[in-house]
Amino acid sequence: MKEGMLRVTLGDNIKKYRAKRNWSQADLSEKTGLSIVYISDIERGNKWPYVDTLVKLSEAFDIEAFELLKPNDNIPENTTKILTKYQDETLAIIEKSIETMRKSVKKSIQNLREQYT
Questions:
Q1: 52 vs 12, 14, 49, 67, CA distance in Å?
Q2: pTM for this predicted structure
């Protein structure tokens, strides 16, 4: 991976980990002792941090430092939300179908009982 892409990856990952925790750059600044301007520069790929800075960032996020440099090959969050919604809707349809079948079987058994008693 070229340096430019690595910088973009680092910036994107810092933003992602901040977003997961609902942290602003000011929150991250407070937790790491880094300036907001410096954090912003790293996120935009304008600054390349020293290793000790990567360690401070990773400790703030409670992750391993290499995870900040790891390319994002995960499913995008909106895809996960769409799949979760689809799963919920599908389960609701299945549950409704089961309930309909249960009522139908119960009614059929009642009809048979009435017919033979």
A1: 19, 15, 8, 15
A2: 0.61
Closest C-alpha to 30, from 20, 42, 18, 19? 18
Cα-flanking dihedrals φ and ψ of residue 98, to 5°? -65, -45
Identity of residue 72: N
CA of 100: how far to CAs of 13, 33, 87, 104, 111, in Å?
47, 60, 20, 6, 16
pLDDT, mean of residues 79-103:
88
Cα dihedral angle (30, 33, 37, 40), rounded to 10 degrees?
A: -70
Determine contact, residues 72/8, Cβ cutoff 8 Å: no
Structure tokens at 50: 């020293």
Residue closest to 60 by CA, chosen among 35, 36, 27, 13: 27
- Residue 76: pLDDT band (50, 70, 90) is low
